[in-house]
Write a structure and sequence with these properties.
This protein is mostly helical. It contains six helices and two strands.
Length: about 140
């Protein structure tokens, strides 16, 4: 919902700028019909965003991420994962939020902690960075 209206998008960017925070910035808003995001010269837009979709079969979850890593293009890509354990607490918090509920989050957790995922990152020369690394860049 955050990127669905220009007003929400502008507020999101303004808060990031006001507090000098890195944020999920793209040259065009993939969720808002491809409209340009209101970026400043020091903003660091992502080249791509990858997130699993609900139509991916559960038994193909790891394959989705491994294929995404194998097909990365040079640049800055964010792979969005939602990590959690499929336990009573997370089930209660995510009730009525299927397909993005606790089972989804457990699958993401299992994939990113798997030896295959870590090997794919290494084999494809992926450099992991943190939001604080981007923050240092926008503050310099």
């Amino acid at each position: 919902a955050l990127f669905t209206t220009p007003a929400l998008q502008a507020t999101y960017v303004k808060v990031a700028h006001d507090y000098r925070l890195p944020f999920l910035a793209m040259k065009t808003n993939p969720f808002g019909g491809g409209t340009p995001m209101p970026l400043a010269p020091n903003d660091i837009p992502l080249d791509a965003v990858i997130v699993a979709s609900p139509d991916i079969p559960r038994d193909k979850w790891k394959d989705f991420y491994l294929n995404a890593i194998a097909n990365l293009k040079p640049g800055l890509t964010e792979i969005i994962v939602h990590l959690g354990h499929d336990d009573a607490e997370l089930q209660a918090v995510t009730v009525n939020h299927e397909p993005y509920g606790s089972a989804w989050r457990q699958r993401d957790y299992e994939v990113v902690n798997s030896p295959e995922f870590k090997k794919a990152l290494k084999d494809n020369n992926v450099t992991l960075i943190k939001w604080k690394d981007l923050k240092k860049l926008i503050q310099s």
